[in-house]
Predict the 3D structure of the following.
Amino acid sequence: MSETTRLIAGPFNRVEGDLEITLDITDGRVREARANSPLFRGFEMILVGKTPLDALTLTPRICGICSVSQSMAAARAIAQAIGVTPPAPGQLVAALIHAVENLADHLTHFHLFFMPDFTRPAYAGRPWHDRMVTRFTAAEGSAIRSATRARADLLHIMGQLAGKWPHTLSLQPGGVTKAPDARDKVRILATLKACRRFLESDLFAAPLEEVAALDGEDALDRWRRAAPRGDTGLFLDVAEDLELDRMGAGPPRFLSVGAYETPAGFLFARGLFKDGATGPVPLERVEEHLAHSWMTGATAHPFAGVTQPDPDMADPAYSWCKAPRLAGETVEVGAFARQVVDNHPLARALLRDGAANVRARVLGRLLEVARTALALEAWAAALSPGASHMARSHALETGRGAGLVEAARGSLGHWLVARDGKIKSYQIIAPTTWNFSPRDSQGLPGPVEQALEGALVKPGETTPLSVQHIVRSFDPCMVCTVH
Amino acid sequence: MSPYTVLWLQSAGCGGCTMSLLCAESPGLFDSLEDFGIKLLWHPSLSLETGAEARAILEDIIAGRVRLDCLCVEGAIARGPRGTGHFHILGGTNRSMLSWAREIAPLAGDVVAIGSCAAYGGVTAAGPNPTDAVGLTYDGAREGGALGADFRSRSGRPVINVSGCPPHPNWVTETLMLLSLGLLGESDLDPLKRPRFLADHLVHHGCPRNEYYEFKASAGHLSEQGCMMEHLGCVGTQAHGDCNIRPWNGEGSCTRGGYPCINCTAPEFEEPGHGFSETPKIAGVPVGLPTDMPKAWFIALASLSKAATPQRLRDNAVADHIVTPPAVRSTKRS
């Protein structure tokens, strides 16, 4: 019988927050992986007893990178509980603010978090390595600097519409706190044009419309060979050379709760994709398991869930993260999941045996960059100076509501129960709670734990490169995960 | 010239201070650091090194093999459960961030608390403070915290609190630039150890709602343009920060975005004792006076100015866009 060795990788950085991965390795392959989210803050305990509107100030501060998504989820949960709907112009501005954050997050992930791993000396001599070092050396690379500037420019839309980023209070149950005027509208359009210029010169070296229209592997291959394709082309070269499409297969089930709801409906559909088709999401069958979490309590739907950390951190638990399951199963969430659920032909073509992989996750994100940037331009052009952007609402006394939104890295839910004007219960499931969950009551691993099984471990590696690519391909946000 | 070395640790916070920092502009973050010879030894979001490589950097600093000029800590320090600090064990180290911070901080030339969590506890310490979170040298408004009130870095200076939730990106870059040039001394800090370049201003300074404030033309609901002090919880007249002097993300600030200043640079802002967007009142009079203003004068001036409010401001204060523009008049003397 082959010997099993254990590696403990951490602090696992460039993941937004802190992460530790334990790897049991046999014959140069990961046999089992365990994801530990090592930071607990207890937002669900902090919120109990406060007035419901306080969630609008406190929950964005769960996460500095998905701050607006947290705002949106809180605003939606309260809006549902009191039965208020923002006027159409307010919905549009909220969608715009939210999509700008998600687009900025995608740029941050690709340039600052994911790509630098390919600059490592271990890849010296690969045909793409020199270009990678020039473009993506941490803190120094030309792409890192230009993308950071482009991201800061894009976030001017936050200054224009939301005061600041992160941690705005502009998203309210009844709408948004600032009604843009005509000058705001053209300024936002100008910022989006500048963003398009960056995307079309550096990231894609192609028109956004062309990227959004790619409808399969053949089209992608023709597009790639027709001209140099910027940093996307560089990634495609790496993906081919390192066979990133054979790395990191997750569960063959994808969830999206639907992204950017305007009066026209969702831009990206809500649904559960499994067995080759998108169906409805059985939201009443969301449950969090606690068997391998440092938590006490029973498996429960988030309207009935509790958060009671176990100060003894007793075995067999190994993470502060709870283990959410949908109808008893793991699901993968994120940009790629959204594009699959939305039935984009390129995303569907990137699946291997019905599952995602490192290449698919990253390309799915890039595809979404193009589609989101196009949607932003259309929404900005549709802004309505002079219209009311806020509906009057009343205080929430007793009731409950669920706020479901898509953060950059996947589905986010807030489940709020209020009684007598105070928060009685507030439960949160963040995207990386889904993706980086520990094992559940049946001992079944979470999505990233599954994706790591079989990963290649080379002699002498302390944090195997394959493991780094797989983990970071999910774009994890560890501060959201446990909250 | 040898670089000014910075180690950045993230503890019990949201990472938003780093996300804000990446919004630095003209020049951008990485250019700013390079131009001032500031070298990030390690940053959890920005550095290549991971796992064992990152641990080696920490060990080099502790062993004295690498000089540490500045330790930046982002996020509160969790002391729980039961004083162990185990609510945040730094990944891969089996050791709490509380323990790491206590060992590394005395080795640093200066220690900078980045954001209100690292400075005072911040939102992580809100409500029942489930993790017993504190700032580096403050527990809310009381001195103490994770390192203790008497803590001094190698320079002899106390922990410098670049508070804010998040801090403006250039509060951080300018603090590091000043430190790298030896231009930030203890006398440049306010009583809460915040750099005076940001703390000697009030959020009220430069607020575009100032004319509404002068005439007590108040917004009654969020999205309206009037002053938010009377009804909507705004404490910009008491909050320290140059938020309306230097804009955020291009042209923004909280009050420009249509929502109240919640004094996020101050200790215990996370527990205002009332809703964040409502003003507590006694007998109809808002509690909490503008900083340095005698109460009797404030009430007298407020009632006088309320009586003199131009109709234009009355109209615009409760609208979400300008409904009555200022009259056009010649300012020339004939």
Q: What stands out?
A: The first strand of chain A starts at residue 4 and ends at 9.
